[in-house]
Amino acid sequence: QKEVEQDPGPLSVPEGAIVSLNCTYSNSAFQYFMWYRQYSRKGPELLMYTYSSGNKEDGRFTAQVDKSSKYISLFIRDSQPSDSATYLCAIGDYKLSFGAGTTVTVRA
Amino acid sequence: ETGVTQSPTHLIKTRGQQVTLRCSSQSGHNTVSWYQQALGQGPQFIFQYYREEENGRGNFPPRFSGLQFPNYSSELNVNALELDDSALYLCASSLVAGGNYEQYFGPGTRLTVT
């Protein structure tokens, strides 16, 4: 069993839709949760960083953590074509365990 | 503020050869981590360097080694290259302080082994 499971998609949505991305993890000791965005042939860009269960909002992005279910989510509101990328969840501390990434396409 | 930089951008090597990849950490950061990202996969942790010493290692063989220099820049060395070493190699820098584990990635070095 992988430490972090993420549906690879692909996910295609119309512009303005809400994008919902999810990951599950197996190690209950994990304390820190991150979401990265990666454009094709580029390095991952840190979008959200959370520590505890609950919600964290930053502009159009909302990250949710449910430690009891070992489940994390990222929501993108009012999606734009520029949001088209691969989204990676990452969990851990000094050593990050990543999901495989979900490829998202936002259609204009 | 200068971000994480990596060199070279692309590299083609032959099986059995050795390669050195370089990383300059973000200004103010003291820790460098290296990850390997195969096509269509998430990054896999190779190791981390803090205060010029290895501070944790993933499931990679000893032919993957590294260095961190006093200015916090870092090198990743891979000996006896294998075809499966073809991947995007990512460097991430962070400031280890007060339980903050945010890591910021460079653009990566794409290594092709033929």
What does this entry look like structurally?
The complex is a heterodimer of chains A (108) and B (114). Helix content of chain A is 0%, strand content 56%. Chain A has strands at residues 4-6, 11-14, 19-25, 33-38, 45-50, 54-58, 61-66, 71-76, 85-92, 96-98, 102-107. The interface between A and B is medium-sized, with 25 and 27 residues.
Keywords:
heterodimer, A: 108 residues, mainly beta, six-stranded mixed beta sheet, B: 114 residues, seven-stranded mixed beta sheet, four-stranded antiparallel beta sheet
Q: What is the mean pLDDT of chain B?
A: 94
Distance between the termini of chain B: 38 Å
Number of helical stretches of at least 4 residues of chain B: 0
- SS class of chain B: mainly beta
Largest Cβ-defined interface: A-B, 25 and 27 residues
Strand content of chain A: over 45%
Can you write the helix and strand succession of chain A as a string?
Answer: EEEEEEEEEEE
Shape of chain B: globular
Write the layout of secondary structure elements.
The complex is a heterodimer of chains A (108) and B (114).
Chain A: E1 4-6, E2 11-14, E3 19-25, E4 33-38, E5 45-50, E6 54-58, E7 61-66, E8 71-76, E9 85-92, E10 96-98, E11 102-107
Parallel strand pairs in A: 2-11
Antiparallel strand pairs in A: 1-3, 3-8, 4-5, 4-9, 6-7, 7-8, 9-10, 9-11
Chain B: E1 5-7, E2 10-13, E3 19-24, E4 31-37, E5 44-50, E6 53-57, E7 64-68, E8 74-78, E9 87-94, E10 104-105, E11 109-113
Parallel strand pairs in B: 2-11
Antiparallel strand pairs in B: 1-3, 3-8, 4-5, 4-9, 5-6, 7-8, 9-10, 9-11
Short description:
Chain A is mainly β and 108 residues long. In chain A, 0% of the residues lie in helices and 56% in strands.
